[in-house]
Amino acid sequence: MSTPIKRLEIIRNAIELEDDEIVQSQLSRLKNEACDDALRAIVVALEEKNYSAAMAAITAWLQGQRAVTTWHDPQVAASRLELKALEDRLRDLIDRRNARAQQLDDFNDLYFSRLGPLMQQILQLRKTLAELKLRRQQAEARRREEDYRRCQRYMAQAVETLSTLTQRWCDQPADAVEATEARKHLQQQSNLIANLLAEALELESGLTREEEPARQARDEANEEYEKYREQHHDAEVRLRKGKALSEEDRNELKRLWRQASKLCHPDLVADDLKEEANRMMVQLNQAKQRGDVKAIRSLVARLQQGFEPLMASDRLNDLARIRKKMAQVREQIATLVDELAALEKEESWLLISSLSDLEAWFARQEKSLGEVRASLEQQVHEARLDDVA
């Protein structure tokens, strides 16, 4: 009963101020709150602009109510109104975030539709090129392994020859011509062994140094290709569902989804309704993914008719709980403000918000990616020729 009391006090003050505009604005609300014959009689008098009779009836009704009305802490009303304002702010921020997310999704789907096949060809070529490079590295590693084994054999033979030459030199008298000749051969063999040792060290380090980066590049190219193919497939599914709807239905789907999100988002509703709100959000998002306008329209109707009141400001009467909820909503607002600020600095959002001619941008991208594809095709062709050679 406190609402009609406050409403009538406003109307009485407006009549005293001779402000008919305020009277009429409150009258429409008072009609919905008129719960007894006296209130309905006041409504009729106000509608007929019989302000003298209305003033007398209002004064009598208020005096009668004061005798039975319990006292209400004005801080509760003030805090609930402040909480309502915070909830409105949070609802607006959630809607802005949803709108930006929708814009990003729409752009990404359009990107996949226009450039997806070209990008998939490029990633496939990179994957092929990385595989060819790895095969070339593996072939090079096998060649190095063969050279290393051959070098070992030469080294063994050279060491054996060195031992024979050493023995021959030691068997010669110091002043013999044969000793000088043996020492010369011994020096040449030592130089050969040193060269073979250096070659063996170089081959040994190459065996482990060169293949691993190529293997890692191959694995990364495979992973990037598979990830992009999955994203492209998901985008194609969404686009097919979108094409099944008319442009009018697609626009209504987005509008209804945002409207429903503002009504049942778990961050917006009172704590005791969060579980139910989560379930409804799941249903809402599933209907959106299916492109089911009828299901979303039904959810909106349920929210508007049977899931009210939702907001904590409409359900809480305890001052401590209201103030606790206010603190929670302020934290949520701060988080969303930071989230939106970060989103607006992201490269994808900066691109979307800066594009004035989407068609021209896509044309430039198609040309640029076509050049990249041609370059990769040439590299793959040359790598295959090297592989055959």
Automatic annotation (TrEMBL):
Residues 205-232 are annotated as: Disordered. The keyword RNA-binding does not apply. The keyword Ubl conjugation does not apply. Keywords: Chaperone, Coiled coil. Residues 207-232 have a biased composition (Basic and acidic residues). Residues 76-149, 319-346 form a coiled coil. InterPro entries: DnaJ_domain, J_dom_sf. It comes from the Bacteria. SUPFAM superfamilies: Chaperone J-domain (SSF46565). This is DNA repair protein. It comes from Pseudenterobacter timonensis.
